[in-house]
């Protein structure tokens, strides 16, 4: 276990005040633990459901819960069940001041990587499925290619950023068998002027380098590899089925060799476990050596199903940290401001030390074209393309 110079026996001066502290985390997705999929069906700040309240008769289910209950099982392997989930759209319209982009795309519900700290566990509770089954029941969205083509043609996507993998990993093991992510990217490759990012823990992203190169030639694209530690054994403890850290760094290198913008996200930084100056220095150095263009990090945030799951995990794997986590997270869901500010300053200093950026460069100016809208309305010259610059997305 990492020995943190920051997380120690907490003096009274660091005790959380009873009032809600102002959120100053440098998270890529502010308050994402409550709005990871931009589907306001469940308040993750609400008290936990009692075990007996988690399951309802199918006749009482509505919306996505009813669809999930009727989804046929497609396969089962590695202790995981896969279900085919009918959906009405692929683009989730966030339209919220709490996230720095308009649209998200999550080809799957649930994630087989089983990261113990994952904030998105609460999304399974939308479907009346316990959050602890987030990694064992994976719902594969159906007809994603056709739906992506329709959504990209009908939604106001020009000038708006689309974040792929905001809640579940688009390159989890299910992608090898179902190919939902690639089907969506194929439709995005037919457009120009999109603003896209992909966030993943998997080196499987390099499988789609051909598509990513086509997309980046016509649209703005960046790829984020989420890596929390360089230590393979610790990564296996925290992220049981995610690829090893060295494989993820290798993916960054391959993407950069292919001319694709790529960087590293140390998200989350786990107090007392991955937050030591030595560990974060090693992580930033490895990002630099892999030719990453940026390095960013944010402190662990816990609410709802994620909080319940992670506290059980800490009790079993890091029992000496239980009291500290209870003091920090049970009431407020976040570490104290003083701790987060210290981590922010440390990450900033590491970027400066290794010459890394804090975020992708501004997207290049590109025009928007949709195959469905290329109509020759006059016999004269067409109007010049709109060359408004896309806004940065975080």
Short description:
The protein is α/β, with parallel strands linked by helices and 394 residues long. It is 30% helix and 14% strand.
Structural overview:
This protein is of the alpha/beta class and 394 residues long. The chain has a single domain, classed as TIM Barrel. 30% of the residues lie in helices and 14% in strands. The chain has helices at residues 32-35, 63-69, 144-154, 174-178, 180-188, 209-218, 232-238, 245-257, 277-289, 304-317, 322-329, 337-354, and strands at 73-77, 80-85, 92-93, 103-105, 108-109, 137-141, 161-164, 195-200, 220-226, 261-269, 295-299. The protein has a 7-stranded mixed sheet. The protein has a 4-stranded mixed sheet with strand order 1-2-6-5, with no helix packed on it. Strand 10 (261-269), helix 9 and strand 11 (295-299) form a beta-alpha-beta unit. Residues 1-37, 39-54 and 362-394 have low confidence and may be disordered.
Strand residue percentage: 5-15%
What helical percentage do the residues reach?
Answer: 25-40%
Number of domains: 1
CATH superfamily caption: Aldolase class I
Strand order of the largest sheet: 3-4-7-8-9-10-11
Q: Give the topology string: H per helix, E per strand.
A: HHEEEEEEHEHHEHEHHEHEHHH
CATH topology: TIM Barrel
Instruction: Please tell me the CATH architecture by its name.
Output: Alpha-Beta Barrel
């Amino acid at each position: 276990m990492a020995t943190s110079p920051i997380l120690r026996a907490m003096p009274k001066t660091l005790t959380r005040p009873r009032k809600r502290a102002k959120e100053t985390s440098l998270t890529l997705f502010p308050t994402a633990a409550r709005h990871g999929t931009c589907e306001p069906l469940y308040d993750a700040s609400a008290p936990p459901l009692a075990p007996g309240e988690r399951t309802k008769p199918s006749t009482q289910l509505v919306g996505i819960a009813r669809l999930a209950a009727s989804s046929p099982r497609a396969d089962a392997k590695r202790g995981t069940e896969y279900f085919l989930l009918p959906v009405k759209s692929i683009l989730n319209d966030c339209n919220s001041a709490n996230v720095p982009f308009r649209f998200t795309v999550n080809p799957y519900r649930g994630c087989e990587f089983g990261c113990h700290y994952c904030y998105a566990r609460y999304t399974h509770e939308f479907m009346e499925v316990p959050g602890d089954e987030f990694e064992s029941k994976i719902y594969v969205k159906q007809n994603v290619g056709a739906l992506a083509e329709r959504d990209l043609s009908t939604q106001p996507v020009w000038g708006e950023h689309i974040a792929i993998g905001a809640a579940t990993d688009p390159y989890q093991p299910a992608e090898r068998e179902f190919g939902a992510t690639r089907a969506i990217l194929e439709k995005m490759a037919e457009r120009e002027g999109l603003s896209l990012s992909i966030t993943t823990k998997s080196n499987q992203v390099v499988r789609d380098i051909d598509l990513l190169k086509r997309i980046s030639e016509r649209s703005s694209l960046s790829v984020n590899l989420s890596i929390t530690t360089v230590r393979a054994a610790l990564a296996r403890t925290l992220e049981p089925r995610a690829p090893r850290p060295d494989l993820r760094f290798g993916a960054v290198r391959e993407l950069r060799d292919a001319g694709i913008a790529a960087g590293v996200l140390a998200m989350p930084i786990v107090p007392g476990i991955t937050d030591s100056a030595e560990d974060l220095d090693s992580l930033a150095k490895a990002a630099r050596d892999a030719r990453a263009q940026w390095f960013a990090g944010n402190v662990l945030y816990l609410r709802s199903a994620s909080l319940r799951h992670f506290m059980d995990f800490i009790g079993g794997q890091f029992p000496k940290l239980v009291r500290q986590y209870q003091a920090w997270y049970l009431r407020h869901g976040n570490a104290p401001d003083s701790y987060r500010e210290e981590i922010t300053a440390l990450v900033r200093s590491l970027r400066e030390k290794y010459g890394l950026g804090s975020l992708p460069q501004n997207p290049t100016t590109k025009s928007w074209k949709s195959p469905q809208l290329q109509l020759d309305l006059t016999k004269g010259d067409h109007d010049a393309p709109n060359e408004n610059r896309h806004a940065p997305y975080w």
